[in-house]
Amino acid sequence: MAxxxxxxxxxxxxxxxxxxxxxxxxxxxxxxGRPQRRTVSAATRREAVVKLTKLQxxxxxxxxxxxxxxxxxxxxxxxxxxxLCYQVQEAAALNYLSIARNHVLPTLGKKRLRxxxxxxxxxxxxxxxKSGLAPSTVRRIRSVLAQALDQATxxxxxxxxxxxxxxxxxxxxxxxRTLSPEQARAFLSALEGHRNEALYAVMLATGLRRGEALxxxxxxxxxxxxxxxxxxxxxxxxxxxxxxxxKTSTSRRALNLTSPLLTLLQQHKERQDAxxxxxxxxxEDSGLIFTSTVGTPLDPRNLLxxxxxxxxxxxxxDWHVHELRHSAASLMLAQGVPLQVVSRVLGHASIRMTAxxxxxVLDPDRAMAADAIGSLLWSSSTDHEIxx
Length: 388
Hints:
DNA polymerase, domain 1; 3 domains; three-stranded antiparallel beta sheet; 14 helices
């Protein structure tokens, strides 16, 4: 029989089935107006009173979230529909949702948020690693889960983000390949006369991402000042190939062009104008600098096949088109271009990102620093000993 208590203080009763004392308190109401309760259980009435009092205090202090009974699966769906779609680009939002559906929900989707623990998350990540997924992919899974649970804390579903309390797998650092100056010149030589010579030359000289290069329009090129403005990217979504804004504000940038590079772009424009005139009525005027033979956007997959053929012609072996970006950065750093300048040219979010990826190229700089400090601290004393 329940013991009478003051309004808002909850109730305490002894359960007939096993004799345990139950403390119960209403923490809210669902969409139908029905009360939602939190309960505590104890062997004695006094212990139940202590537990119930602590629960009430935690709720009052904001340390205990209301028990909405929301599952992780429900959270992901609501997060995607109400928040994610308006925070990131559509392609990124769909990618987050795909990661959640394929890797998180099959294991944890039916669990209530308040029942999730770091143990569950660590078990999920270990399971994914054992299945053969790369550590970088598993880190991505953890990141998506952590972002979803961060939203759950904002909505008051939980009071802590258990994903951030889990251990993120270490990703071994891999130093990407870079073309040597000799290989870069061989690549440019093999490009001479190629329909997309200007495209690959621009990527090698400026470090543009493939999508950024394919999203360039002629109105992004200022021939007078020899400046190329990066404002868009070509990407694939559910509809197909689309030209959209760059992923981040730091990706939008202006690049100065060397005279040979500007000449290549001008020659490319003349070639494109001739193709347009030849295919009058068939040509689709997209305004893009680099297009297919009928004016439509270049498919990145076709570009990759074409690029591999050029590398074989140059006797360079098998390379990926993204390695042109890595080569551009490494060659600039090797030529003494300051790290912060290279970071801006690449459109990195921070100089730290550039240092993390290309720090190995700066080994000679570390030797130079050691020589400089050594000369400062010890050369004078050596000279003094000799003079004595």
